[in-house]
């Protein structure tokens, strides 16, 4: 159905019993056009970085290799980062796969289940108790690690007036305070701390894990980002 | 998710104009919906876990009867229906308790690939049995009567032994499903396959119609220079389709009439004007 060179099946005709010819291609064309359009909408920053015409060509190759496996188009393109990674002619744009990951994560966050953040004073408990507590995060929260300044590249191509990207590696936190996912650059070690908490480590253990990975880890800055984004949904203290 | 409390709504589609809901029109619809009395949504856009789409739908369902229109179930597939997708449809309908639920006489899934388009099928005894089995299953799982929509066709199958109206009548008779008559699709198919759209309507089981669709199409040509209309939902409804709507309404009496506009979606006033024209067509019909 997606191969434009394939022959038109037999047994299809127009009203005068002539073979269907290019009438069949209307269907082929509709399928390809709708999927290409879906790719443009799903990856606006990639489209901007490559230009719409290049994106059309790339989407055309991608959608034939990776036709959707589900009618839920909201998640279409999950294989796009790996596809970009495998394109030799794009290897000089090494950050593209991570940008595609970020755009996928923003979409996942947009459609994720709703949740309620903890009360602002929920962390104002005895410090020892706090260190032993565990945290639960909102389904709409996403964390991405990258060797590229992906937040800067994304913001430069999404938000007017953003400064040009710096050449430092950036991890990104996506929160969804209400309905719009908001990406922010994570402080150094923040991703390590959040990952440790998601592995059920306590706040204190997670801090040790993060400091071991990144001695400059800044707990306060990371926590502030999470609280501002409504990303912490509950705190569990040991019995 | 808990079931929504939309019990204040009369839970059926009114015999009035509705529009296909687009999120960019959310605020205008809440501020000035006239003459739109109901809305239709594509089921697949509301199968996420949460966020703005479901919040908006919850909000709209407090004010408007909502029709859930599936585009991805692939009722015409050779293989079994996708049980996960069927479960998602049931989940959405259980939560929303929509005023109507409809799907297409078409297929879009083959070998586990989903093509994001509504593809045609031949009308034979074999496909008839298969379609009826699938619709029985849908109505049983979802727990509601569904409406089945006629497709737009760009070609004919040599093996077809049923006319489309007869095929739809028989599906409706066997399964108890209602029908969604897409007047633009009739016009597009009739032009492409060289028959009279009025003759199609005369043959069509009009008594089973639960809803009418209108939409815009694009004009192209086939290899022989014959007009080839493409069901694009990307512009205004053309005059001959409005005339065909009048022809239908004279025979069916008042029905819920929906204007679809899915690509190159216009600003709200333009869609609203199309809905007004549909409402005016309904006003001409004796109740």
UniProtKB/TrEMBL annotation, chain A:
* Cross-referenced Pfam families: DUF2063
The record ties this protein, via Gene3D superfamilies, to: DUF2063
What InterPro entries does the annotation carry?
DUF2063 (IPR018640), DUF2063_N_sf (IPR044922)
Q: Which domain of life does the protein's organism represent?
A: Bacteria
- Putative DNA-binding domain: residues covered: 16-84
User: Could you identify this protein by its name?
Assistant: Putative DNA-binding domain-containing protein
Tell me which species this is from. Answer: Roseovarius albus
Automatic annotation (TrEMBL), chain B:
Q: Which InterPro entries does the UniProt entry name for this protein?
A: MbnB/TglH/ChrH (IPR007801), Xyl_isomerase-like_sf (IPR036237)
A Pfam family assignment: MbnB_TglH_ChrH
Top-rank taxon of the source lineage equals Bacteria
The family database entries (HAMAP family) matched by this protein are listed as: UPF0276 (MF_00697)
In the record, the note on similarity to other proteins reads: Belongs to the UPF0276 family.
What is the protein name given in its UniProt record? UPF0276 protein ROA7450_02190
**To which species is this protein native?**
Roseovarius albus
Lineage runs:
Bacteria, Pseudomonadati, Pseudomonadota, Alphaproteobacteria, Rhodobacterales
């Amino acid at each position: 159905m997606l191969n434009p060179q394939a022959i038109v099946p037999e047994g299809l005709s127009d009203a005068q019993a002539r073979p269907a010819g290019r009438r069949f291609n209307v269907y082929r064309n509709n399928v390809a056009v709708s999927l290409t359009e879906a790719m443009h909408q799903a990856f606006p920053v990639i489209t901007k970085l490559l230009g719409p015409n290049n994106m059309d060509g790339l989407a055309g190759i991608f959608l034939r290799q990776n036709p959707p496996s589900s009618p839920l188009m909201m998640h279409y393109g999950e294989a796009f980062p790996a596809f970009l990674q495998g394109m030799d002619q794009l290897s000089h744009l090494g950050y593209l796969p991570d940008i595609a990951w970020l755009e996928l994560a923003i979409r996942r966050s947009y459609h994720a289940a709703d949740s309620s953040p903890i009360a602002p004073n929920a962390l104002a408990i005895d410090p020892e108790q706090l260190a032993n507590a565990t945290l639960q995060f909102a389904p709409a929260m996403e964390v991405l690690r990258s060797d590229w300044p992906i937040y800067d590249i994304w913001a430069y191509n999404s938000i007017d007036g953003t400064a040009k990207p710096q050449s430092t590696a950036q991890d990104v936190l996506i929160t969804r305070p209400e309905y719009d996912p908001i990406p922010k650059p994570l402080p150094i070690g923040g991703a390590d701390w959040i990952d440790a908490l998601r592995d059920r480590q306590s706040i204190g253990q997670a801090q040790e894990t993060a400091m071991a990975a990144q001695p400059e880890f800044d707990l306060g800055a990371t926590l502030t980002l999470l609280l501002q984004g409504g990303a912490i949904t509950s705190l569990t203290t040991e019995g | 998710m808990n079931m929504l409390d939309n019990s204040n709504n009369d839970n059926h589609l009114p015999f009035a104009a509705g529009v296909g809901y687009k999120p960019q029109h959310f605020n205008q619809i809440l501020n000035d919906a006239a003459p739109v009395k109901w809305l239709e949504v594509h089921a697949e856009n509301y199968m996420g876990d949460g966020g703005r789409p479901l919040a908006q739908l919850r909000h709209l369902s407090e004010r408007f009867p909502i029709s859930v229109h599936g585009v991805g179930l692939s009722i015409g597939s050779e293989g079994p229906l996708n049980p996960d997708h069927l479960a998602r449809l049931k989940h959405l309908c259980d939560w929303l308790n929509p005023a109507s639920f409809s799907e297409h006489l078409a297929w879009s899934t083959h070998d586990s690939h989903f093509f994001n388009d509504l593809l045609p099928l031949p009308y034979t005894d074999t496909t008839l049995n298969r379609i009826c089995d699938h619709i029985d299953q849908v109505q049983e799982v979802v727990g509601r009567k569904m409406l089945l929509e006629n497709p737009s066709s760009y070609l004919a199958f040599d093996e077809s032994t049923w006319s489309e109206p007869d095929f739809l009548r028989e599906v409706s008779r066997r399964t108890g499903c209602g029908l969604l008559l897409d007047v633009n699709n009739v016009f597009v198919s009739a032009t492409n396959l060289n028959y009279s759209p009025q003759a199609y309507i005369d043959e069509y089981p009009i008594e089973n119609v639960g809803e009418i669709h209108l939409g815009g199409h694009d004009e192209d040509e086939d290899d022989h220079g014959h007009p080839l209309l493409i069901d694009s939902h990307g512009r205004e409804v053309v005059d001959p389709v409005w005339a065909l709507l009048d022809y239908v309404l004279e025979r069916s009496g008042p029905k819920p009439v929906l204007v679809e506009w899915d690509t190159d979606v216009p600003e709200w006033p333009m869609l609203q004007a199309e809905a007004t024209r549909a409402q005016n067509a309904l006003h001409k019909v004796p109740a």
